[in-house]
Write a structure and sequence with these properties.
mainly beta; about 350 residues; single chain; 9-stranded mixed beta sheet; 23 strands
């Protein structure tokens, strides 16, 4: 595929701390490290967003397990977050509805004025304590649907729509002090020193892209055609701004993660927090439709409707670098611009 010429990059941005509306008191069970909560990201959804954060439980109730487009036999009854681990990694949680009809559950839950998704758990916080004061905290965000956006400004041309969407930030702490933050974006993402990103008080600001929900450190237009390049315009664009404010901590599950046993433990000791869903290794959405399906279109080998994603356990929770190991160079950015031209740490 040929790409559009790269555009020149704006000068370094100086971003002040952001004044936000008064938020609700956060809610978290005893045992979650205070610093994991104090430095938890706040997310701005795009002002024109149509697909909001979604209840994790609802994804199970609105889908059926399928393998190769056929329903799975002998499924646990009821199938819910506590029994989701009984399904194999070949399973796709497939929408019961025709997604081209935009059923209401795909559009998620609109937030209240304090940034909360009421009556819906839409996020998970997973803490990996590596010892010696080294802690990685993952902030996982769930959306029932990913709209891939349009290509090259052509409204009829779309890539990468899919049911289910997991995005995340990861903050690396040393003795309770945040050092770096990772922003997931499509098949890659960006890492920054905590000190340079925009904040409200201690909490870093995240900009969630329209439809795709890719996470960015700055607002505006982001071309993601080429991994590790975040340019202000191009072939495949994400759009972010200060739309609706979301505080994921207000409706989230909280877990610790033990790499040696690949195990998750809820901080909540009442037994009401589901945990088995984290061991589900299948996909949180439909399998990519074949070209024989009238809904499917392929251009340049890219599908309009792609397969749903894997869940939090597949996000390299015990990674060595701030970035996941995905074949791309891990750049720890020390300035906040669409693409950093200098002062890079490797």
């Amino acid at each position: 595929m040929h790409f559009f010429p790269l555009l020149s990059v704006a000068a370094t941005l100086v971003v002040p701390a952001t004044a936000l509306p008064k938020l609700q008191q956060r809610q978290a069970p005893t045992g979650v490290p205070d610093y994991v909560l104090n430095y938890a990201p706040l997310v701005y959804l795009y002002s024109g967003e149509q697909y909001f954060p979604s209840d994790i439980r609802a994804q199970v109730s609105n889908t059926i397990p399928e393998i190769n487009f056929s329903p799975v036999a002998n499924v646990a009854n009821p199938l819910d977050l506590n029994s989701l681990n009984t399904l194999s990694q070949d399973v796709y949680l497939t929408s019961k509805d025709d997604i081209t009809k935009s059923p209401a559950w795909l559009r998620g839950v609109k937030l209240d004025g304090s940034g909360k998704t009421n009556n819906a758990v839409t996020a998970a916080v997973i803490v990996n304590d590596k010892g010696s004061g080294n802690v990685d905290a993952f902030y996982m965000y769930f959306y029932a649907y990913n709209w891939g956006g349009i290509v090259a400004g052509i409204k009829s041309l779309q890539f990468g729509n899919h049911v289910g969407d997991w995005e995340h930030n990861m903050i690396r702490f040393s003795s309770g002090v945040p050092q770096y933050i990772w922003y997931s974006q499509h098949s890659n993402g960006e890492a920054f020193k905590y000190s340079v990103v925009e904040k409200s008080g201690l909490r870093p600001i995240v900009y969630s892209a329209n439809g795709s929900h890719a996470n960015y450190a700055i607002s505006g237009t982001h071309d993601h055609t080429i991994p590790n390049l975040n340019l202000p315009a191009g072939f495949l664009e994400d759009h972010t701004d200060k739309g609706t404010l979301w505080d994921p901590l207000l409706s989230s599950y909280h877990y610790s993660y033990t790499p040696s046993g690949n195990s998750f433990t809820p901080y909540d000791t009442t037994g009401t927090t589901p945990v088995n869903w984290l061991y589900f290794n299948g996909r949180w959405g439909d399998q990519e439709y074949p070209t024989s399906d009238k809904r499917q279109v392929k251009v340049f080998g890219q599908a309009k409707y792609a397969s749903g994603p894997t869940g939090p356990a597949d996000k390299q929770l015990n990674r060595s670098n701030v970035c996941p190991d995905n074949g791309q160079e891990c750049i720890l950015r020390t300035i906040l611009v669409p693409k950093d031209l200098g002062e890079l740490e490797r």
